UniProtKB/TrEMBL annotation:
<keyword id="KW-0238">DNA-binding</keyword>
<feature type="domain" description="HTH iclR-type">
    <location>
        <begin position="4"/>
        <end position="66"/>
    </location>
</feature>
<dbReference type="Pfam" id="PF01614">
    <property type="entry name" value="IclR_C"/>
</dbReference>
<protein>
    <recommendedName>
        <fullName>Glycerol operon regulatory protein</fullName>
    </recommendedName>
</protein>
<dbReference type="InterPro" id="IPR036388">
    <property type="entry name" value="WH-like_DNA-bd_sf"/>
</dbReference>
<dbReference type="InterPro" id="IPR036390">
    <property type="entry name" value="WH_DNA-bd_sf"/>
</dbReference>
<dbReference type="Pfam" id="PF09339">
    <property type="entry name" value="HTH_IclR"/>
</dbReference>
<dbReference type="GO" id="GO:0045892">
    <property type="term" value="P:negative regulation of DNA-templated transcription"/>
</dbReference>
<dbReference type="InterPro" id="IPR050707">
    <property type="entry name" value="HTH_MetabolicPath_Reg"/>
</dbReference>
<dbReference type="InterPro" id="IPR005471">
    <property type="entry name" value="Tscrpt_reg_IclR_N"/>
</dbReference>
<dbReference type="InterPro" id="IPR014757">
    <property type="entry name" value="Tscrpt_reg_IclR_C"/>
</dbReference>
<dbReference type="GO" id="GO:0003677">
    <property type="term" value="F:DNA binding"/>
</dbReference>
<keyword id="KW-0805">Transcription regulation</keyword>
<keyword id="KW-0804">Transcription</keyword>
<comment type="function">
    <text>May be an activator protein for the gylABX operon.</text>
</comment>
<dbReference type="InterPro" id="IPR029016">
    <property type="entry name" value="GAF-like_dom_sf"/>
</dbReference>
<feature type="domain" description="IclR-ED">
    <location>
        <begin position="67"/>
        <end position="250"/>
    </location>
</feature>
Length: 260
């Protein structure tokens, strides 16, 4: 596999910073990289424009930017997320006998990071590590509904609205209308859009800052998906995601006060 030299050099610059070298001059970076200052300057400016590097205005030295902290938090939160969520997912599955999923957003797809198989229904399409389209899945809809319309339209640029079943959404217009419904309801629904005979409901999970970092869902046979049952499942799922989000540090009471 070919190595892209400029990318490799940029990553090596980031690796120069540690506990003993919190700030570095361009001269020091050039020497350690064995590169001309002009080359290093271009690399630093690129990293700086993307907030991976910042420059101390007082002494001109460079240091790591907050973007790395943000990226690192994504990794850590995903690891913590599964550990925190697991007991709540198991409890929900035990209560309902349904299959419960935990999914995160990866580009234009949702990715299953955990699954608790229920005794009441076997869900064929889901397995840990599998990607699921955002337009046909309840989890996908919940994962993007918190974003602005402009962010969603940018996300789905070039997206293929493939019909997996007769009930699948097949256009951007339909998808945006569905997202608006999710925002109003506070949950999302997959009505046999991924797998015939299976209905799925999903609710988002939030981190300490209130950002949606995942979605939890439950799947049930369509024959058992009465309006009363779906309402019951949604309420149980909301309580489950409330507990997960709260354990991750999200303060629902504070969030309510800030909205007033």
């Amino acid at each position: 596999m070919p190595i892209i030299q400029s990318v490799e050099r940029a990553l090596k610059i980031l690796d120069l910073f540690d506990e003993r070298s919190r700030e570095l001059t361009i001269t020091v970076i050039s020497k350690r990289m064995d590169l001309h200052k002009s080359t290093v300057h271009s690399l630093l400016k690129t990293l700086q424009s993307n907030r991976y590097i910042i420059q101390n205005e007082e002494n001109g030295k460079y240091m790591l930017g907050l973007k790395l902290f943000e990226r690192g938090n994504v990794v850590v939160s995903n690891l913590d997320l599964r550990t925190v969520a697991r007991k709540h997912l198991e409890m929900l599955s035990d209560t309902t006998n349904l299959t419960v999923h935990l999914v995160i957003l990866d580009g234009q797809y949702g990715v299953y990071i955990d699954k608790v198989e229920g005794s009441g229904v076997t869900v064929v399409y889901s397995r840990i590590g599998r990607r699921v389209p955002i337009h046909t899945s309840a989890v996908g809809k919940s994962l993007v509904a918190n974003k602005s319309n402009d962010e969603i339209k940018k996300l789905i640029t070039g997206y293929q609205f493939t019909k997996l079943t007769e009930k699948s959404i097949n256009s951007q217009e339909q998808f945006m209308a569905e997202v608006e419904k999710v925002r109003l309801m506070g949950y999302s629904l997959d009505n046999e859009e991924n797998e015939p005979g299976i209905v799925c409901v999903a609710v988002p999970v939030k981190d300490y800052s209130g950002k949606v970092i995942a979605a939890a869902s439950m799947s049930t046979p369509v024959a058992k998906a009465t309006s009363e049952k779906l309402e019951e499942y949604v309420n149980l799922l909301k309580q489950c995601t409330f507990n997960i989000s709260e354990e991750l540090g999200f303060n629902y009471q504070k969030a309510k006060l800030l909205k007033k």
